[in-house]
UniProtKB/TrEMBL annotation:
It comes from Pedobacter chinensis. Keywords: Membrane, Transmembrane, Transmembrane helix. It comes from the Bacteria. The chain crosses the membrane at residues 34-52. This is Peptidase M56 domain-containing protein.
Length: 92
């Protein structure tokens, strides 16, 4: 979980999982893009709308635009280096 400016992990061994770390770094960038607090507001609103639409916590979570960007690019270790600012907007 990314809560600016920290990445919180369930276990010590996850520190070595570069995809998870990259996923969470993408969230940190998203939080910066939206000046932190609005990110959490938009994240929650997007989740609640998805929950009404899909009637499934898992699907509602996976359809959050910020999660879609992070999951799509978590394996690309150069994604953040290539200045892909506001990539989540394409997913609206």
């Amino acid at each position: 979980m990314a809560i600016f400016p920290f990445i919180l992990l369930k276990s010590e061994k996850l520190k070595a999982d570069q995809e998870i770390i990259n996923h969470e770094k993408i969230h940190l960038r998203q939080q910066l893009e939206l000046l932190i607090l609005p990110f959490y507001i938009f994240y929650l609103i997007n989740y609640l709308i998805n929950l009404l639409r899909y009637k499934s916590h898992h699907l509602a979570y996976r359809k959050i635009i910020f999660e879609q960007e992070a999951y799509q690019h978590e394996a690309n270790m150069n994604y953040l280096k290539n200045n892909n600012w506001y990539g989540w907007i394409k997913l609206i």
